[in-house]
Amino acid sequence: MDKLCSHWVGQTNLNTCNCSRKATSDYLDKALTSWPASTPASERGSDVMRPWDELADWYWQYWNEIETGLTLLKSSDQIPSNPLRDELVGLYFRHVHPLCPIFEEAEFYEKYYLEGDDLAFLQCVSLLEFQSMMFAASLHLNSHQICQTQYTSTFQCHEELFKIAKNTYHASHDASPIASTRAALLLSYWSPYDSEKQSNSYWVDQAFEKAKVARLFEPHHNLRAISSGRRKLLWWCCLLRNRLLAFGLHRCGSLHEDTSPGTLPSQEDFGLEATSPQFMDKASKQQSINNFILQCELSQMISWILQFQGRRDSGKESERLQGVVDASELLEVSSLLSALTEWGKKVEYPLEDIAERFPPGICNMPCQLTRIFYNSAIVSLCLSYTHLDPLDFSPIAADFAETALREVKEAVSRIAKITEILAYKVDSNDIPLSIGAWITIPIGVKLVFIHNSADFANPASEIREMHSLFNVLYILKHRFTGGKFLCNMLDAVVSHIFLAGGKNSRQEVTGLLQDAIAIIAKGLAHGIVPNAKL
Questions:
Q1: CA–CA separation, 334 and 169 (whole Å)
Q2: Which of 69, 378, 418, 504 has the CB geometry, 3.0–4.6 Å to 411, for a possible disulfide?
Q3: CA 111 to chain centre
Q4: What are phi and psi of 334, to 5 degrees?
Q5: What is the separation of C-alpha 481 from the centre of its chain, rounded to a whole number of angstroms?
Q6: What mean pLDDT, rounded, does the chain reach?
Q7: From CA 520, how far away is CA 500, in angstroms rounded?
Q8: Whole-angstrom Cα distance, residue 300 to residue 377?
């Protein structure tokens, strides 16, 4: 038997197999038919293995190995060919990895660039993971690079690479939980902002499901496949993606907070990547790592705000419609705002300095995103309280209404100034689609006050900030399907504002502001463009 097995195995090199299933099957079937028939099961014990049974078992085990080899060869048709593949790998580690550091950079670099075999890198990442990487990286291809491919547009390129990875995900029933978690996180960057179920939040839910199977929230559990530090980073990537999507898309109900997040990531968790980066210089890598840790820290406060808003809106919906706000709620809002402000004093100015000190490029974009997230958190926390009527509430509530309005205006202005940097000083292909969800409310706020106020201290500055916000939106519209949706949604907001006409009183203006924000929140949460209604 051993001699026969070794003879047959020698007929096929699994690493270079190009035979068809039919040819292999015919060859083995002929051998099977020449083998002596096995004894019927009724005439032998269940623990007795006859030659026929032994060969049959071996046959199917061997055939599974052959199919694995064939799948590996076929995978070359399922991933981009060079030079596009090399460009996508570089784009991935320069633009996606800093925001979602789920792979061992040094290990991948060695396998991809230093091994002789063209597909050697599939030894350290699965086909599923690599296809997901290619999709996420494609979101940063420029038009010239797209023209060198078989794709006719950026929209087609994004969609086709997403579909390939999505289909592999659903077909990979035996994929490890860690590989599936990584793939799902990267597929969560698919955000057409329509009613498609399998986009953004769907994939984050998938990632959490697989992450819990892998028990990633336990850093020292099963370290054979992944280091303790990378396990922690992968778990925090799940938390971060979930919190940012739930917050940016106004989906409080999609928040995953049923498992302890554990301690924050640290420089040590990045291992060799922190000291010997492969895709950027050491200073940029250090700033990239620090920025990721800051985003994780900020996401904790974002989670607190989401949980507070969820409790508030579910328990007091009828009261809020009547404008009723009690002292305990204002006290909690004030506490959250103080925590945000203190964090901002520690982080916002250093980040602003870094953004100005570093040249436009690799480490600049993530820092600008962190600043936008921070200021958006202030806007979201305070916006609901700008509509409080000073005549209907206690002096404390009246004062808080003025504070909330001031905080919203100042935070929106800071966001607009950041988009000016993005629109004019950063390569447009570096700008991620996700930023669109974070600038729509600032645009809505600006539109309402520009249309209904004549007391601006610096009207020219207001118009310039508005232009910067719209310029970034224009960039997104021409690069992403989701960008088109955002523009259509804001068309509905503009229609609502202008159909409402000019408002004179503070209460009328803030009431219109609440209506405009409601249109945006509904559109982002459900992927639909609501009608403008008065």
A1: 44
A2: 378
A3: 25
A4: -60, -40
A5: 16
A6: 81
A7: 16
A8: 11
Residue 41 in this model has a pLDDT that exceeds 50: no
Of 276, 236, 266, 269, nearest to 107 (Cα)? 276
Residue count of the chain, please give it.
534
Taking the C-alpha atoms of residue 465 and residue 416, their distance in angstroms, rounded to an integer, is: 5
For residue range 298-316, list pLDDT tens digits in order. 999 999 999 999 888 876 5
Q: Residue 83, preceding bond cis, omega within 30 degrees? A: yes
**What DSSP designation does 25 have?**
H
Q: Which residues contact 90 (CB under 8 A, 6 or more apart)?
A: 279
Burial class (CB in 10 A: 0-12, 13-18, 19+), 414: buried
C-alpha dihedral (295, 300, 306, 309), degrees to nearest 10: -130
DSSP one-letter string for 411-427 = HHHHHHHHHHHHHHHS-
- Token pair 């509530």: residue: 397
User: Could you give the C-alpha distances from 111 to 105, 106, 115, 155, 409, in angstroms and in order?
Assistant: 10, 9, 5, 31, 50
Q: Nearest-CA neighbor of 441 among 516, 336, 509? A: 516
Q: Is 362 helix (H, G, I), strand (E, B) or coil?
A: coil
Q: Model-level pTM greater than 0.70?
A: yes
pLDDT for res 354:
64
* Backbone torsions φ then ψ of 65, nearest 5 degrees: -65, -40
* Confidence tier at 121 by pLDDT (50, 70, 90): confident
Q: What is the pLDDT of residue 327?
A: 80
DSSP category for residue 94: I
In which element (H, E) is residue 302 found?
A: helix 282-315
Q: Is 271 left (phi over 0), alpha (psi -120 to 50) or beta?
A: left
Residue pointed to by tokens 């054979």: 224
The H or E element spanning position 277 is none
Q: Tens of pLDDT along 164-204?
A: 999 999 999 999 999 999 999 999 999 987 767 899 999 99
User: On the CB side of 415, how many CA atoms lie within 13 Å of its CA?
Assistant: 32
Three-state secondary structure call for residue 18: coil
SS3 content of the chain, % helix, strand, coil (to 5): 70, 0, 30
